[in-house]
């Protein structure tokens, strides 16, 4: 292997730049040429590929978003589109690719690998929903952002004796809401991994009031219900003012925290090592603090992310 490419795909996540920097710098230090692919798989298909030197990744370790840009490009599912993408890589003499993104991006990397083009996946998403790793890049930074938002909501909810519903990203994974609930001391958690009964929630809110709680913060994962309609139902059932806040894309932005920078640097460098060893169709993770790599097909099909029941129970215990 003499030339490698790097791209970011899907939803951006804080720490992606630190990972790009690590791939570029580790690659250069091994004597490789490194190319940036701009605009994810969409950019790859359109041949938006440029060589990267060490100064192209100066002053980016601290920056949110992705300097390479990202895109959602469902058309990449089509084999003819991927074939074109491989031709574009070959035009530059690129032998292998590092893909930083979530499960959709891993799917693209798996398909390219199956077509004979070596790829390594790095988990970059705030959702923490990728198997084979305890943490995805961006999760810890987004968690800090959500906890900061919950702290602020607590101030205003307490002042007005209100119930506050906060909708948190994560797609179909409750990790961000769950961890934020524990760290933010929210009263109630609603996550996709646990069955939810609204009448039970109302009863818990009453119990909280009986305990003398001035506010009630309900953390809920997105896509589960319409939180504004839920706020109206809770308000009419409890007689207490209830407001819903959808945190939205604020959760995706901002400077990566130290944790995400360190893990991104480790994972990016490790991806280059794996490519130099001739590995393909692997995805990198951190488990029990150690760098690991798994078969990307297994990661997408048979492997499952364990739900942190311990954190869920803890949050209820401390309510
Ligand atoms: O996967 C990251 C994520 O932010 C999810 O939490 C969310 O459901 C989705 O992306 C939003 O996607 P988009 O930025 O395309 O609206």
Automatic annotation (TrEMBL):
For ADP, which residues are the binding ones? 21-25, 154, 185-187, 211, 213-215
Which InterPro entries does the annotation name?
Answer: ATP_PFK (IPR022953), ATP_PFK_prok-type (IPR012003), PFKA_ATP_prok (IPR012828), Phosphofructokinase_CS (IPR015912), Phosphofructokinase_dom (IPR000023), PKF_sf (IPR035966)
List of residues binding substrate: 125-127, 162, 169-171, 222, 243, 249-252
Q: Which residues bind Mg(2+)?
A: 103
Regulation affecting activity: Allosterically activated by ADP and other diphosphonucleosides, and allosterically inhibited by phosphoenolpyruvate.
Query: Which Pfam families does the UniProt record give?
Result: PFK (PF00365)
Q: Where is the Phosphofructokinase domain?
A: 3-275
The reaction(s) this protein catalyses: beta-D-fructose 6-phosphate + ATP = beta-D-fructose 1,6-bisphosphate + ADP + H(+)
Keyword tags: Allosteric enzyme, ATP-binding, Cytoplasm, Glycolysis, Kinase, Magnesium, Metal-binding, Nucleotide-binding, Transferase
Asked whether the UniProt record includes Transcription regulation among its keywords, one would answer: no
| Main EC class the enzyme belongs to | transferase
Its biological purpose is as follows: Catalyzes the phosphorylation of D-fructose 6-phosphate to fructose 1,6-bisphosphate by ATP, the first committing step of glycolysis.
The protein depicted here goes by the name: ATP-dependent 6-phosphofructokinase
Species annotation: Motilimonas cestriensis
């Amino acid at each position: 292997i003499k030339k490698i490419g790097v791209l970011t795909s899907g939803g951006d996540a804080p720490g992606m730049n630190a990972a790009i920097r690590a791939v570029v710098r580790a690659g250069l230090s091994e004597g490789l040429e490194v190319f940036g692919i701009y605009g994810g798989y969409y950019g790859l298909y359109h041949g938006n590929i440029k060589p990267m030197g060490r100064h192209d990744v100066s002053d980016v370790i601290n920056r949110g978003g992705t300097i390479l840009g990202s895109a959602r490009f469902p058309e990449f599912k089509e084999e003819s589109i991927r074939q074109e993408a491989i031709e574009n890589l070959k035009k530059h003499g690129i032998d292998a690719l590092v893909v930083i993104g979530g499960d959709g991006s891993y799917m693209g990397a798996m398909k390219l690998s199956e077509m004979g083009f070596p790829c390594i996946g790095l988990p970059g998403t705030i959702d923490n929903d990728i198997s084979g790793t305890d943490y995805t890049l961006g999760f810890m930074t987004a968690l800090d952002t959500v906890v900061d938002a919950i702290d602020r909501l607590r101030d205003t909810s307490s002042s007005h004796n209100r119930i506050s519903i906060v909708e948190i990203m994560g797609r179909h994974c409750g990790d961000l809401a769950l961890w934020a609930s524990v760290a933010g001391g929210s009263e109630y958690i609603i996550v996709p991994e646990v069955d939810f009964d609204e009448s039970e929630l109302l009863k818990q809110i009453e119990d909280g009031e009986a305990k003398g709680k001035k506010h009630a913060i309900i953390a809920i994962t997105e896509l589960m219900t319409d939180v504004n309609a839920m706020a109206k139902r809770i308000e009419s059932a409890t007689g207490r003012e209830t407001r819903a806040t959808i945190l939205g894309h604020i959760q995706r932005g901002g400077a990566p925290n130290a944790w995400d920078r360190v893990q991104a640097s480790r994972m990016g460098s490790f991806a280059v090592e794996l490519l130099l060893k001739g590995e393909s169709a692997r995805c990198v993770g951190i488990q029990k603090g150690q760098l690991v790599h798994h078969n990307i097909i297994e990661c997408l099909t048979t492997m499952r992310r364990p739900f942190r029941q311990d954190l869920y129970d803890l949050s209820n215990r401390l309510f």
